[in-house]
Every structure is written in structure tokens, then in C-alpha cells.
């Protein structure tokens, strides 16, 4: 397999604001606002992302192009709201800060860390029974990966969905790609991942006869398959915090460096 073409150097700006919780890692609940922007020298306005998380699980993210708040659990909309314009203001400040950081660092690009890839079914696979094949891509930076599914060597484009990029505590990222499928005897599925940290695409193969690998952590499973049942208990706190953010939109913004 020939090497993957090198992409332009990427510059990354990441902001993480903890809104609730003390001493992460000691069992406390953490509600956080996460935003990042990235660009290359050739493209001043690159991709960006804005979301709120609870214990590393997404509550909502903002579609910055459509100016729309997308709720991970639609039921949250019955209790609160979030104005997408507030996220766009935060992203504008981050872009300005990234430009300043690039100049101060003499355009030093973000470190390129290659991803780890794990493929596993949502439930034990049975031939002929509908299932979902999950490709977990984790531990990479910057947040720019390409994921392609193949069935018996042929690219699959339908019944495929992807999540946003979720930040890890070490400033790397993770994301999930899902493919709805019906396992067939002898079928071979491949999740192919490309990233600037890889010399060539990374393939992870799965077939119905393979033992099922475990995801890296239980946390990743929760993040990939949905919010835990217990998250309902934090709705009241989330309502208060998000409402407070709406009333004080500028309170949490970073000023220019």
C-alpha cells in the first residue's frame, strides 16, 4: 500500500472550561464546555467545534454553519435551551487567540499524534441478524481523521454515521463511526482510518468469526452508545448552568491573549 499524501501542517486552538465539579478523578461530576478551532497556513478559517459535556458524555453541540443547537438527547430541549449565536462568539475569540499564538510561536504546528483504532459490534454478532459495527478512533491529535468502511473490499457509503470529535484529558481526541449491517457468513469488514500522523491508512478488520475486542474503557462505550441512564439526574443542574450562560453570554469568553 502506498503512503498517504501529507496534509498541510495544522494549527490547533483548544479551550476547556470546567463549569461544575472539583478535583476530577475523585468521583465528582464534571460539566464542561469544550471548544476548538484549527487551521492551516493556507486556510485561515478551518474547522471548529463547540459542545457541552457531562462526565465526558456529550449533552449538545452546536452546528456552527447552520447556527443550530443539536441535542444528544432530544428530551433536554423540554427543560432548557442554548443560543447557537453564543457559541459562534466563543469560536470567533478562539480564532483570534489562535492567530496570536501562531505568531508568537513562529507558526509552530500542532503535534501530530496518530490514532488507535478498535472495531467491535454493538451486540454479539449473529449471522443474518441486524447489528451495528462500531469503529472507535482514539488518542489522536489534531482532530482531523478520515474513516472509510469496506465490506469484502468494496467501499460502503450508506447506513454509516459519525460522531463529533470528543476531547480526552490528555488533549488528544476520540470519535466513533457506526455502520448498520447484517453479518453474513464469510463477510469481512474493514474500518480504514487516515490521519496526518499515519504514514499510510490504518486498517482494522472484523468478521463474524473474530473474537470481539473490548473498547479501551467503559467510558468510551458510554460515550459511543449514548448517555448513561443516570444523566437524567443532572438535568436540573444543567438547566441552571446553561440558563446562566444565556444570561451572561460574555462571562465565560476568553479575551484576546
TrEMBL record:
Keywords: Adaptive immunity, Disulfide bond, Glycoprotein, Immunity, Membrane, MHC II, Signal, Transmembrane, Transmembrane helix
GO BP term, pick one: antigen processing and presentation of peptide or polysaccharide antigen via MHC class II
Localization (cell): Membrane
PROSITE patterns: IG_LIKE, IG_MHC
InterPro entries attached to this UniProt entry: Ig-like_dom, Ig-like_dom_sf, Ig-like_fold, Ig/MHC_CS, Ig_C1-set, MHC/Immunoglobulin, MHC_I/II-like_Ag-recog, MHC_II_a/b_N
Keyword Ribosomal protein set for record: no
Membrane spanning residue stretches: 224-242
GO CC annotation: MHC class II protein complex
Residue span, Ig-like domain: 115-203
Transmembrane helix in keyword set: yes
Membrane topology: Single-pass type I membrane protein
Signal sequence coordinates: 1-27
Pfam (any one): MHC_II_alpha
Family (UniProt): Belongs to the MHC class II family.
Protein name: Ig-like domain-containing protein
Gene name linked to the record: LOC123027823
Amino acid at each position: 500500500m502506498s503512503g498517504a499524501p501529507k496534509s498541510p501542517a495544522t494549527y490547533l486552538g483548544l479551550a476547556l472550561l470546567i463549569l461544575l465539579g472539583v478535583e476530577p478523578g475523585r468521583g465528582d461530576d464534571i460539566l464542561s464546555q469544550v471548544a476548538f478551532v484549527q487551521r492551516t497556513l493556507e486556510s485561515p478559517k478551518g474547522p471548529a467545534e463547540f459542545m457541552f459535556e457531562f462526565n465526558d458524555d456529550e449533552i449538545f453541540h452546536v452546528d456552527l454553519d447552520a447556527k443550530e443547537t443539536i441535542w444528544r438527547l432530544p428530551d433536554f430541549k423540554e427543560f432548557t435551551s442554548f443560543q447557537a449565536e453564543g457559541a459562534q462568539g466563543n469560536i470567533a475569540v478562539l480564532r483570534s487567540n489562535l492567530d496570536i499564538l501562531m505568531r508568537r510561536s513562529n507558526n509552530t504546528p500542532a503535534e501530530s499524534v496518530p490514532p488507535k483504532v478498535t472495531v467491535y459490534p454493538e451486540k454479539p454478532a449473529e449471522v443474518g441478524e441486524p447489528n451495528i459495527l462500531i469503529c472507535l478512533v482514539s488518542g489522536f491529535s489534531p482532530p482531523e481523521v478520515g474513516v472509510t468502511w469496506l465490506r469484502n473490499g468494496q467501499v460502503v457509503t450508506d447506513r454509516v454515521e459519525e460522531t463529533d470529535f470528543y476531547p480526552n484529558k490528555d488533549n488528544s481526541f476520540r470519535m466513533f463511526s457506526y455502520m448498520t449491517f447484517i453479518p453474513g457468513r464469510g463477510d469481512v469488514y474493514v474500518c480504514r482510518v487516515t490521519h496526518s500522523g499515519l504514514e499510510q491508512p490504518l486498517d482494522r478488520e472484523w468478521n463474524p468469526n473474530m473474537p470481539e475486542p473490548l473498547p479501551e474503557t467503559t467510558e468510551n462505550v458510554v460515550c459511543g452508545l449514548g448517555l448513561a441512564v443516570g444523566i437524567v439526574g443532572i438535568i436540573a443542574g444543567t438547566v441552571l448552568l446553561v440558563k446562566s450562560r444565556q444570561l451572561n453570554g460574555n462571562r465565560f469568553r476568553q479575551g484576546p491573549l
